[in-house]
Amino acid sequence: MNASKLAVVAGTVLSFGTAYAQEPATVAPAAATPAAATGPAVMPQVITVVAVSGKAAARAGSGGATRQLKAGDTLNENDQVITPTKSVVQIRVGDAQVFTIDQLSRVIIREAIAKGMGGVEKDTTALEVPYGRVKFDITSTAIANEVQIAAPDATLAVKGTTGGIEVAAGQPTQAYGGVMNTGVFEVRYAGRTRATVTRRDRTDSKRPDVAMNERARRYVEAQDARAREGDESDLAQEYEQLVFSLFENLIREVGQDQPFDLFAFDESTGEFARGDVFGGDETFVIDVSNLNLNNGPGTGAALLHNGSGTTLLRVESGNGTRLLGLQLDSQNRPVGRFEEIATYSADGLITGLGTIGNQIFAVEDNGQTSRIVELPLPEGGQTSLSVVSTMNLNMRLDSGLAGVTADGLLVAFGRMPQTGLSNGDPGILGADAAILFLDPRNNYLAAAVSDVNGLFQLAPGTDVSEGTITDTQRVTGISTLLAPFFGQLVVLATRSTIDGVPNTAGFMILDLSPDPSSNRPLVFATGSLDSPVEGFAGEARGTPAAPMTLLPIVLPLDPSIDPLFGDLAFSLQAIGSGVVERIARAAIIDTARDGSACRNSSELGSEALLAALVVLRDRRAGMSQAIAAFRAALPEAHPCLGPDPFAFGRGSGPNPAGGVMGPLDPAALARQFATMRYEGAQVSNGQARSIAASMIIASAANPAACQASGELTGPRLNDAIAGNVGQPGGVLQAVHGFRNTLPPNHPCRTRP
User: Which structural domains are found in the chain, ordered by start?
Assistant: First the structure.
């Protein structure tokens, strides 16, 4: 994976994030211009200001009034857009033409019309750029585009692609293809010289030939008094800026502990590559003689920040496990080569790496189960160590792992177990997919998203110019990136079905910032990679957040389940994702007297288990307590009971929490749940609806049909929730009130 391709991945975060996050206000279409009797129909296009950074102005015509611009404003033909220093304006013409106007620019909108004749539509736009810098993103394929951008000494003719033009006094006009450019556009210079731009080619009026520009690539700061003559400086960087250097420096200064950079190691070439959300990219050739390249799943990467600087970590596992480190300088460039830090003994393949502060974590997989383990750093000269198990989530985990410094969490990817509940329709991450936010320091599942809520679907306008992913066989790397104006995003390296070809190296970018209950599509960029990536690295510098303080154990524990899994704590959001209930059900079935009969029992499909999980959230060993409480309420000889009936409080057996407890009163648990209430904030952020919907699905007559019916996102449930704000047992009341409004045979009614 070369650095340019890595920059496509990291840079896409910003280029699509900004437009995706800041949608323009809805503007009524302009009135149609009557067409001539013998010509095509002509209609003015709507020109909308999408976003404004700093202060910018528009002037009507050459001598009209000037007004300050803001997002949602509309512009007209012959308007001029003027940007002072530290200002950027993004406009959209029609539905598919986006132009970003940089600081110190003047752009005149000469024409913006839609033509239609014989069923064929064409959007025609003409801009004039006396000076400044303009980037364009013309993406529509449904409607033909004809865009002309005129500079004093050159004219661009664009049909549908991405790129930019820079015009500065005393400098040759430059044009270039964008990072995501998969099309072609033409540049016509004065004197009839022409240049054809594909991919990330550059051309300028002094050196039109793109091949010559590739050998002598340069960047000119538009209208910068310090800009050098073209022959005075040759900046040998493949640096495609998605925002401009001033903005990048400001953002990096403000967010020093945020993840802006993405690192990867090309398993096919041994090259080390770095990309960032600002479009920067570098490739380094390093000594790989001591590495085991193409090691497959037994590979991972992470960044470790400590007092001695930053180290790029690499794990290699298969025939033994070893941890290696590559020192990086202050500019994140490699110093020397990878050196072995330690070797480890483990019960399975060690794959994926992530760091929280100075702690290193990985995924251990033995072919049947997966765990999160810690790789302790050597002390006192001891370099042969053992991994330490920290979490068992009762589900298989893929190779990817990443640390989120600001939150003190790891991001992992796994597959939910099959338990008789629907895991949702498979999205592009494949069947049973779930992304997990974990704190292995206290065994806490802080958050999760899954296909149960239909989240892993392509968002409207998803960029698929680098390849369309329809299914994913394996996630091979995870990282997080912070996109200015947008928020934290998750980047995945995958082996996926891309353009119909399975097991192809690819990537996708997901927005996990909305509440998962909103059913907002999360995937907004996908594509292929030049070569397989086994582990992204992108952990930010800084002090990680402290682990959450968990509530103490209050009920008996279930000794039949794995103790590490039983010690798991979880949040309300994680319950609402559907993940917690499914891994709990799987543990009950696996340890039941009769697993098959237990899976099909009405009790396992009732609200009892979900109620116990909700009551015992954010509590140490919440999983073990919830399963014990569920089993305590079952009738004698029920198939879901474990091997020892006294272990669940069904008598006077020992209480692992300490002391001796008599029979557990399941009615007390029900009363505790029945008195729970929610307020308006839980309605606004979707938590109340998420929990109610999960309970309805869990106990529905037909869970899959219930989920597909649309009722869980419709007005019936919304009205039931709104009507029980602040009421004791509001969630249960909302569930029952919702079901009372359904037709008798509706699949969301209670299972018989």
Answer: 31-245 (2.60.120.1440), 255-528 (2.120.10), 549-664 (no CATH), 675-752 (no CATH)
